[in-house]
Write a structure and sequence with these properties.
about 30% strand; 10 strands; globular; two-stranded antiparallel ribbon
């Protein structure tokens, strides 16, 4: 049975208890949605994944500190939807998928890094997967040494989820395509 948290809200000097049956979790799964000033784009990103280092990175890399702290992000555009209502549904689906993926490294004792793919069907029409691309590949013009954040001496990598089709995924697997081709 999940723990119950008791919160209080102050209204005009009075407090009233509010109970929540949400299960307390030690792994991050928060997302933040920010609509840019250009209303044709919506950026959705996790907030807090980088606080917990990803497990098992040291099994695959001699320099695990370069990969163990991540945040996930996706940019959706209005061109991916036929109308504003469909765009809003895509935003809801993408937020749910991103939030679910935020817990994946800890629930499966694995890690996510540049070049990895994940299931992403139903969000962007025609795309069943998403390629995780490092911020330096996705936004090369905005990358400077000042924009790389660190936490406990490890860089925090923002991995952008780039929706890809089945044929694009096959091209990546065979080497016909690279991540740069898709960004």
């Amino acid at each position: 049975m999940p723990k119950k948290a008791v919160l209080s809200k102050k209204r005009a000097g009075a407090t009233s208890p509010v109970t929540s049956t949400r299960k307390q979790s030690k792994t991050p799964s928060a997302t933040k949605r920010r609509t840019t000033t250009n209303s044709t784009e919506t950026i959705i990103a996790t907030v807090g994944m980088s606080v917990c280092p990803q497990p098992a990175v040291e099994l695959f890399s001699e320099t695990p500190g370069l990969y163990r702290r991540i945040e996930l992000a996706i940019k959706l555009t209005r061109q991916q939807a036929e109308d504003p209502e469909t765009h809003n549904k895509l935003i809801e689906l993408a937020t749910a998928r991103l939030s679910g993926l935020a817990n994946y490294p800890w629930s499966q004792f694995t890690w996510l890094g540049p070049g990895h793919t994940c299931a992403f069907s139903g969000v962007v029409p025609g795309c069943n997967s998403a390629l995780l691309v490092h911020q330096t590949q996705y936004l090369p013009d905005q990358q400077t040494s000042e924009t790389i954040q660190t936490f406990r001496d490890d860089p925090v990598n923002i991995l952008w989820m780039v929706p890809i089709t089945e044929s694009q995924q096959q091209g990546l697997q065979t080497g016909e395509l690279t991540a740069t081709d898709l960004c």
